[in-house]
Design a protein that fits this description.
By secondary structure, this protein is an alpha+beta fold. Helix content is 25%, strand content 32%.
Length: 154
């Protein structure tokens, strides 16, 4: 896999198209969840996009959001792998690299996520702990989770 972590301004038009298509394929089509996928956080100052390519095809993606964007703390969101890549370890590599990039961008900052409830155990393997009750977001059960570090915002 080839990995790139880029701010919005450095994405090529092809990379932008690839990430939008993959996000719609997974979150809207595969999960049968029509919702406004583009939320303006992609291009917000400080947001970075982690792209994982296999043979020139985008198969893994997440975005890194600075404090105060979707949560008071740093946040990781839109975490996904293409269906063809699941079960290969790409998702673990994606999250591991995402956490490394978050640490590089915002050293020692606590990270909050809105995780689909069925993925709680997956995120717990990386130190995330549930900090909310389960709630519905776009019809899908979610729970807020936190990876505590030295700096907590808010």
């Amino acid at each position: 896999m080839q990995w790139q972590c880029l701010p919005f301004e450095e994405l090529t038009t092809h990379q932008l198209y690839d990430l939008m298509k993959l996000r719609v394929d997974v979150f809207v089509v595969e999960q049968n969840c029509p919702y406004p996928e583009l939320d303006d956080n992609d291009r917000r100052a400080g947001t970075h996009h982690l792209l994982g390519y296999n043979n020139d095809q985008l198969v893994a993606y997440l975005r890194l959001l600075p404090p105060g964007t979707t949560y008071t703390n740093v946040s990781i969101g839109r975490v996904l792998t293409a269906e063809s890549t699941r079960g290969t370890g790409a998702g673990h590599e994606l999250l591991r690299l995402g956490l490394e990039h978050a640490e590089r961008l915002w050293p020692d900052h606590t990270i909050d996520i809105g995780a689909q409830s069925h993925l709680q155990h997956y995120y717990a393997r990386y130190g995330f702990e549930a900090i909310s009750e389960e709630y519905l977001e776009d019809g899908i059960p979610h729970v807020d989770m936190r990876l505590s570090k030295g700096i907590v915002c808010g």
